Amino acid sequence: MGKRHLLATLPLAASLLCAGFAAAQPGAASGSKTAEVNVFIGTGGDGHTFPGATRPFGMIQLSPDTQVRHFKQSYPWAAGYRYEDDSILGFSHTHFSGAGHSDLGDVLLMPTSGELKLEPGYPERPFSGYRSRFSHKDEQAEPGYYAVKLLDNEVDVELTASERVGLHRYRFKPGAQARVVLDLRASIYDWAGKNLWSRLRLRGQDTLTGMRETRGWAPGRQLYFAIRFSRPLAGHQLMNREEGVEYRGFASPGKNPAEKVVVEGKALEAALDFGQLGDTPLLVKVAVSSVSEDGALDNLDEMPGWDFDAERSRAHDAWEQALGAVEIEAPQPMKRMVYTSLYHSLLAPSLFMDRSGQYRGPDNQVHQADGFRFHSTFSLWDTYRALHPLLTLIQPEQRNADFVRSLIASQQASPYGILPVWQFAGLETWCMIGYHAVPVIADAYLKGIRGFDPEQALRAMTASAEYGPYGGLQHYMKYGYVPIDLEPEAASKTVEYAFDDWTIARMAEKMGKQDVAARYYKRAQNWRNVFDAKTGFVRARKSTGEFRTPFNPVQSNFGSDYTEGSAWQYSWYMPHDNAGLVKFLGGDAGLQAKIDQVFDAKIDANVYAHMEDISGLIGHYAHGNEPSHHVAYLYNYAGAPWKTQGRLGQIVASQYKDAPDGLAGNDDLGQTSAWLAFTAMGFYPVAPGTNEYVLGRPFVERATLNLPNGKRFTVRAVNLSSANGYVGNVTLNGQPLARSYLRHEDILAGGELVFTMQATPNTAWGKDKSARPYTQTAYQ
């Protein structure tokens, strides 16, 4: 899900060290990968990324939040933080990276000094609440670490994290009264009545536990937490602000460990007093769990000590190892943009189970992971395209197997018996369309990733593809397409279901199940039932057979014929069968001309203004949203890779930059970033499940993949410059490469792919039909 790209330019001062932060800077070491990451890319405009501290695929995303927002204004603050803001509300422990929807923002803590304020206050009114102004010159962030000076509250804040624990370090002004406010009300996501219930429990003089159940994007979400302080409380107030029920004062539990202070309600808040600390910092550890308060307490023990600098160093090392899967040589700012893209690609799906292996599933019950680590936050409509294929190259086999096993476990626990559609916190949101867990599983299996039961996986895949009540599937199976008079967004659902079906067929065929493969290969051709050869567009059809009229290819509305797009964006979505598209459009020249029209169209700026997700426009091409992501690569299927190379130059130059507003739309849990990571290396997975990558052109001088199997695959660009944007020739391991695609096994074998760049197109390379990428039906 994307949104319009804001073109405002903002100063980036992330490299400056906050005053009072004395810790060494691990990321500053020569050759450090983390030093090449600008975590502020995407925090402005509508990238919806967050700058806070987390680990690769970590359960905790500890980050600043800058706004209280109501449902109708939640979209701009979907990640909690916007670079354009100048005050911070507090620091919460769960966030989405680049999502097009708001939720999370759990366990909001804010250190304060001076007069106690229990309301957040207003950004335009300094000192009106516990929020505080800040300046970007006093802000620093790198993977695994965030720091800022709170100007009004006179506190220096540092954050780092392990997988399950967030660690805060607060330095108060000498002589100041050190306080921490904990706000469990609707927090930063102020949906009307979002909080169903919450609880706070004081355990001794240094520990709080609690829970919050919400009915936001994922109804019935339960979040438990444990908070431990490095110093005992000097006083406290635990309050239910909604009902006016209030408990004040400090009551030591004494010798009886069962004696605890507990408050429950829908609007809980705590004011925690630590007296005057002098030069001694206050440290706070926070762990979360979806299972129980005891689970959160056990997770807290993942970080047994109070050595902030050591934990920060461990987070840095974890990111160095993860980012070290790719070695990039390129001038700035491209090098920084690519490493930042890799960083954003390593945030989700996120770990979502306790140290005990327990987690909460889509049935809202507690389950036990056996032999795998359960992950959630699957933005599958976005991420099956490039993110998951990228992770098969840069993450260990076990991590990818964990993703697959998490999807299968979710299907087994689903009340509907289907794989996740858009899942977070183990729960289903039903957001977007398709059954796109299917291509994630199939692509992993076809690439040789094991560690899961393929029979079990295939059953889960076919169960999802044949669950009639979901998304008009009963009509799709009856008519061979989704009828628009029976189901909204029918045109896009048909073509996306057809691709998912093809990946089922591919996996079934690999497993030797020819009957299943034949059935789904046939279903994979259903895209033809909604393609109108007369107009050259995918169109919605009625159950009576005719295309819906009147037809306007630029029309786009939520719930109309297309999902977050128009016919101009959706008519090229049959990535498994582009030879069929070429034929429908009258041959190679017809497809080339049609894609040229997509990019070269002169359109009114207001045509798509009502659709926040159609953004990053080049003509009708919308890079800010996923349906367009493969379109530039389609020229290869019509024998014109040189046109792909030219269009990629347009896209990279206009849709990415090393600045807070450096993403054209939502990053969508890493998909937009994964597009750049692939494209910068010179290839892209147009159709996951083919085990092929379509060649484009590189944007870096050298990229080396340190593969999970221990081998190294290098891409090198000779004569790369701004003037040399076309590929003259390509060699693989020293031999000329005539085909315009790369096989997965070519990469796994290790070796070197070399692009020789030049200023003019080579219109002969990749032209022959034998040189073109896979399609289900043969080239004519």
Automatic annotation (TrEMBL):
<keyword id="KW-0732">Signal</keyword>
<dbReference type="Pfam" id="PF07971">
    <property type="entry name" value="Glyco_hydro_92"/>
</dbReference>
<dbReference type="InterPro" id="IPR008928">
    <property type="entry name" value="6-hairpin_glycosidase_sf"/>
</dbReference>
<dbReference type="InterPro" id="IPR041371">
    <property type="entry name" value="GH92_N"/>
</dbReference>
<feature type="domain" description="Glycosyl hydrolase family 92">
    <location>
        <begin position="296"/>
        <end position="758"/>
    </location>
</feature>
<dbReference type="InterPro" id="IPR012939">
    <property type="entry name" value="Glyco_hydro_92"/>
</dbReference>
<keyword id="KW-0326">Glycosidase</keyword>
<dbReference type="GO" id="GO:0016798">
    <property type="term" value="F:hydrolase activity, acting on glycosyl bonds"/>
</dbReference>
<dbReference type="InterPro" id="IPR005887">
    <property type="entry name" value="GH92_a_mannosidase_put"/>
</dbReference>
<keyword id="KW-0378">Hydrolase</keyword>
<feature type="signal peptide">
    <location>
        <begin position="1"/>
        <end position="24"/>
    </location>
</feature>
<dbReference type="InterPro" id="IPR050883">
    <property type="entry name" value="PNGase"/>
</dbReference>
<dbReference type="InterPro" id="IPR014718">
    <property type="entry name" value="GH-type_carb-bd"/>
</dbReference>
<feature type="domain" description="Glycosyl hydrolase family 92 N-terminal">
    <location>
        <begin position="37"/>
        <end position="289"/>
    </location>
</feature>
<dbReference type="Pfam" id="PF17678">
    <property type="entry name" value="Glyco_hydro_92N"/>
</dbReference>
<protein>
    <submittedName>
        <fullName>GH92 family glycosyl hydrolase</fullName>
        <ecNumber>3.2.1.-</ecNumber>
    </submittedName>
</protein>
